[in-house]
Amino acid sequence: VLGRHSGRHGFADRCKQLGFSLTKEELDAAYQKFVEIADKKKEIFDEDIAAIISDESRGIEQTYQLEYLHVASGTGTLPTASVKIKTKEGVKLAVALGDGPVDAAYEAIRQATGKTPKLENYTIRAITEGKEALGEANVRIANGKGQVFIGRGVSTDIIEASAKAYVDALNRMAAAETLKQNETKVQL
User: Fold this and answer.
1) How, if at all, do strands 118-126 and 65-72 pair?
2) pLDDT for the residue numbered 142
3) Contact yes or no for 55/154 (Cβ under 8 A)
4) pTM
5) Can you give the pLDDT at residue 87?
6) Quick check: 87 and 113 in contact, CB under 8 A?
7) How many angstroms separate the CA atoms of 183 and 167, rounded?
8) Hey, what CATH class is 65-180 in?
9) What does the pLDDT look like over 35-63, one tens digit per residue?
């Protein structure tokens, strides 16, 4: 069990003990995520570390980065979400309403990115135990061209995990579009 004060060295040692071999860059990214989660919960378990490393080592280009998410929802109010998404063209801001907080977040992300894939599947589950458990969201989106992309997000906040999963799927869709464009250029 690690905590906020375990430090970088303690985190790196535990990763090695769990069988993870990380580059310096991967360790930097995973440690940053560890600190964010440690700020939210008192104890970080091995399952948390595995989820962090899995989430950070998904190796695709980050065309879109979720920099900010705020969601307001409750009985008698319209669920609203505002997002700040970093793109290659700069930072995009959007605010949207939805049927619920996740729908509002997804609509705001669609507005910020200009991408409107069909959401085919959405699941959420706890991957660690306790009141400060990590939630894992998985989404499947389709681009309308017969291609399907899976995204995954992890956070102690299930709305944030859901938004991260959607952005992850959009990044996979963007990577496939870039690959297709590069293949077309090679054929010319």
Assistant:
1) unpaired
2) 93
3) yes
4) 0.74
5) 94
6) yes
7) 24
8) alpha beta
9) 888 888 778 888 788 778 776 655 677 89
- The three-state (H, E, C) secondary structure of the chain, written as one string: CECHHHHHHHHHHHHHHCCCCCCHHHHHHHHHHHHHHHHHCCCECHHHHHHHHHHHCCCCCCCCEEEEEEEECCCCCCCEEEEEEEECCEEEEEEEECCCHHHHHHHHHHHHHCCCCEEEEEEEEECCCCCCCCEEEEEEEECCCCCEEEEEEEECCHHHHHHHHHHHHHHHHHHHHHHHHHHHHHHC
- CA dist 54 and 18 (Å) reads 13
Average pLDDT for residues 171-185, to the nearest whole number? 75
The confidence score (pLDDT) of residue 21 equals 76
Core vs surface per residue 89-105: b (16+ CB within 10 A) or e: eeebebebebeebbbbb
How much is the mean pLDDT over the chain? 88
CA–CA separation, 188 and 167 (whole Å): 32
